[in-house]
Amino acid sequence: MKYKLLALGVLKASPEKQLLDHYLGRLSLDFSIQELISKKHHTKEEEGTLILSHLSPNDYVIALDEKGKDLSTRSFFDLLENQGNQIKVCTFIIGGADGLSEAVKNRCQMLISFGKMTWPHMLVRALLVEQLYRCQQIKNNHPYHRD
Q1: I need a labelling partner for 75 at 20 to 30 A (CA). Which of 39, 112, 115, 121 fits?
Q2: Average pLDDT estimate for 54-69
Q3: What is the pTM of this model?
């Protein structure tokens, strides 16, 4: 399965970028990031239209949303493993500061959360890639992840 991240905004040189690059370097999954440029005056509906234009009809779409389902790492791994034989591309979405439009949420097969706390959007990229790396290590029976 291929994994793709659609994220609003461009991650510039920063500690968040260093952390993201660190986990990208460890990741052996087929993973790509597509950064979408949104104008500051865009509404979340306009951002939603931009996001939707970059999705393929067959993508399995998971959005990161504060009101999404809170999964354990093991549940996240199980979700990806269960979908692995049925889908070709799993696309993750990280929206803008104002959240995701209803149109984007309706297109998603699942909304997940990284807890009830609010996280900076640029840091969430690194958190997602670290969790994908952790899932990779679970699949390989590597001791990186401890239940």
Answers
A1: 121
A2: 95
A3: 0.93
